[in-house]
Specification:
Number of domains of chain B: 2
Oligomer: heterodimer
CATH topology of the largest domain in chain B: MetI-like fold
Distance between the termini of chain A: 9 Å
CATH superfamily of the largest domain in chain B: MetI-like
CATH topology of the largest domain in chain A: Rossmann fold
Number of strands of chain A: 20
Structural class of chain B: mainly alpha
Order of helices and strands of chain B: HHHHHHHHHHHHH
Mean pLDDT of chain A: 83
CATH architecture of the largest domain in chain A: 3-Layer(aba) Sandwich
Shape of chain B: globular
Helix content of chain A: 10-25%
Number of domains of chain A: 2
Largest sheet of chain B: none
Low-confidence stretches of chain A: 1-9, 347-361, 400-405
Strand content of chain A: 25-35%
């Protein structure tokens, strides 16, 4: 992606694209309907051996349904589930060998920790010695040796979760599926467990699919993240890609705050209001005259009280500071752009725009954040006028997605 | 604080409402529950323990107690298994007519036991709808121990189901789903995961059913024929001996039945924690 080259140099993602590893698990063209409502449309993705894929979406995006289809707890309407090269679409849950970590952990309440972990082997009629050995290994892997005789109700949430993971690892699952695994925990425990699980997964090298609605969790846990929106995948990519190069406005705004402004593509630049900012997209992506949206994050906004800008910054407009909030590590500013982002009109766009539509408001608000050192050296106050520039931004078509990403 | 002091007066110092209400409760229960129960024991032991023992050891009395236990046992076995099955079906599947079935299963509690016995006679009696077909084959269900079991099943039908179903309803589906994804068959899941969680409900359901069946009178007297030494259960024995004026004989069995129900309810009450232990 050439996008960032015209602007200031930025940390780029380290590239190590060796030959694509074979998929450990894949779904191909999944769709699902409940009655007449379609909840999934044409979902396809692969998970490589040892890879962690996060399905990120709001509630109702269909992420749980995908998980249940892979687990065999739900039948797809169309499409296939392939685990290590084998089509398992028609197999019942118990013959698939997937490990599901339910949100509630679903530990068997009348079994001790070691009985829970050994359950998969007991029902497979393994030898007692073998079961004991595996259970011992797993107990030390998840560091629960001293809790082996306890019942699930005597364990903390994090311990229960580790038992749930160990219980699935016992039968060497094809893939691990985590259904909102941190949903029931408080923020601190959640962050701690997230790191613990990530380390554990790297150790056991089993491919894993997480579902979550928490973008921070997705970015931290996933080798790759698939962003879901009402039953389809908006974008799938590394956390870096989806955060910095969102393919759609939905992805941009779902992963943290995003500012969106209308713009028009000209021959040599992009026009945002009266400002001209450099073209950052590949050559043929947009033609001159196209209406586009430019999307940028609050931390991509540079503010200056004089008109002095570092080379590479794209000057946007002047703005008046409307609100300054201190939020811990950052200072958050709400700014009213004095010009820029006016409605883009192409030949095709009909004139039925109404003033009631909030997007059509003539005043454009943007949000900017400044790190603490900058905020304390250059103080800004409500009512002051500043120059707004962008250090980085993404250009998206007015409607739909931007092709390949 | 000062504004709420008047409202808090009753929690400070002596409050007459407390002992008064407790006394009222005990006083009201005296003639209604305590005295009738006590009189069984007072009357039964007044004539001496040897007479009580002799009355209890009468062959007909022993037979009546044994018959009651046996018929109640089989009715309990049937109703617990049936209740388990019915609760599973009605809790796990949603289908048209589900609520109608739940109501039908629960209905026998609301039907007078005499009506239940009469209904069984109309169906299985020698001239009944089905009994008429069986009679030529020499099969006679009414006026046998089998009839008593049928009557017991009918009147205790919803008890075990009523205890087991709520547990099924609150049991998380994800436990069974987890078991399935781990690789268990339906039967393994039921045996290792579902059933252990139902242990408490099954035991209390069984005890309730048994206690109710042992005491059943209204339907039993109609379907059993009340033949001493053949189809006479313990409650029928009490009734028969009382009618014959043999108060001691009736009283001996009454004491046994009363003690027996104390025992069952003590188990239900004190074993609750054990039954629900995780």
């Amino acid at each position: 992606m050439k996008a960032k080259e015209t602007l200031i140099p930025r940390r780029e993602e380290p590239v190590n694209h060796t030959a694509a590893p074979p998929a450990a698990a894949s779904v191909i063209g999944l769709s699902k309907r409940f009655g007449k409502t379609s909840v999934l449309e044409n979902i396809s993705f692969d998970v490589a051996e040892g890879e962690v894929l996060v399905l990120l979406g709001a509630s109702g995006s269909g992420k749980t349904t995908i998980l249940r289809i892979i687990a065999g707890l739900e039948m797809p309407y169309t499409g296939k589930v392939i685990l290590h090269g084998k089509d398992v679409t028609e197999l019942p849950a118990r013959e698939r060998g997937v490990g599901v970590i339910f949100q509630s952990y679903a530990l068997f309440p009348k079994m001790t920790v070691e009985k829970n972990i050994g359950y998969g082997l007991r029902i497979r009629k393994r030898k007692r010695k073998e079961i004991k050995q595996t259970v011992d290994e797993l107990l030390s892997l998840v560091q629960l040796d001293e809790h082996r005789k306890k019942y699930p109700s005597q364990l903390s949430g994090g311990q229960q979760q580790r038992v749930a993971i160990a219980r699935t690892l016992a039968y060497k699952p094809e893939v691990l599926l985590f259904d909102e695994p941190f949903g029931a925990l408080d923020t601190q425990t959640r962050v701690h467990l997230r790191r613990e699980i990530r380390a554990l997964l790297k150790k056991v090298n089993v491919p894993a699919i997480f579902i979550t609605h928490d973008q921070e969790e997705a970015l931290e846990l996933g080798d790759r993240v698939a962003v879901l929106n009402v039953g389809h995948i908006e974008q799938i990519g590394t956390p870096f890609q989806i955060y910095n190069h969102p393919a759609t406005e939905y992805v941009a705004s779902f992963l943290g705050a995003a500012n969106v402004l209308d713009a028009v593509v000209k021959k040599d630049f992009i026009e945002v209001g009266s400002a001209q900012i450099p073209k950052t997209f590949e050559k043929d992506e947009f033609k001159p005259g196209d209406c586009v949206k430019i999307v940028f994050r609050p931390e991509d906004v540079a503010l200056s009280i004089n008109d002095f800008l570092r080379p590479g910054y794209a000057r946007l407009s002047t703005a008046v500071i409307d609100e300054v909030t201190f939020i811990g590590a950052y200072e958050r500013l709400r700014l009213r752009l004095e010009r820029g982002g006016e409605e883009c009109k192409t030949q095709e766009s009909p004139y039925y725009l109404t003033t009631e539509t909030p997007d059509r408001e003539p005043t454009k608000w943007i949000i900017a954040t400044r790190p603490k050192p900058e905020a304390s050296t250059t103080r800004l106050h409500v009512g002051e006028r500043v120059v707004v520039a962008l250090t980085s931004f993404t250009v998206l078509p007015l409607q739909g997605t931007r092709g390949a990403n | 604080m000062s504004t709420i002091v008047p409202a808090m007066r009753h929690v400070r110092g002596f409050d007459i409402a407390r002992p008064l209400s407790i006394f009222m409760l005990v006083f009201m229960m005296m003639p209604l529950v305590f005295l009738p129960l006590a009189s069984i024991f007072i009357f039964g032991t007044r004539t001496g323990l040897d007479k009580f023992w002799a009355a209890l050891m009468a062959p007909e009395a022993i037979f009546a107690l044994k018959l009651s236990m046996a018929t109640s046992f089989w009715a309990t076995v049937f109703n617990v298994i049936f209740g388990l099955f019915a609760a599973y079906v009605l809790s796990r599947h949603n289908f048209w007519g589900r609520n109608a079935l739940i109501v039908t299963i629960s209905l026998p509690t609301a039907i007078p036991t005499a009506v239940a016995g009469f209904a069984l006679l109309l169906l299985w009696g020698p001239y009944g709808t089905l009994g008429r077909l069986l009679a030529p084959q020499g099969v006679q269900i009414m006026f046998t121990a089998g009839a008593i079991i049928l009557a017991n099943i009918f009147v205790t039908f919803p008890l075990a189901f009523g205890v087991i179903k709520p547990v099924f309803d609150t049991m998380s589906r994800s436990l069974e789903e987890a078991s399935a994804t781990i690789g268990a068959t339906r039967w393994q899941t039921f045996w290792h995961v579902t059933l252990p969680s139902l242990r408490g409900a099954i035991v209390s359901g069984a005890l309730l059913t048994f206690a109710r069946a042992v005491g059943e009178f209204g339907s039993t007297i109609l379907v059993s024929g009340n033949l001493a030494g053949r189809t006479q259960t313990a409650p029928l024995y009490i009734f028969a001996k009382f009618n014959e004026g043999q108060i001691e004989a009736a009283n001996a069995i009454a004491i046994v039945l009363a003690l027996f129900s104390f025992l069952i309810f003590s188990v239900l009450f004190f074993a609750r924690d054990w039954l629900d232990v995780d």
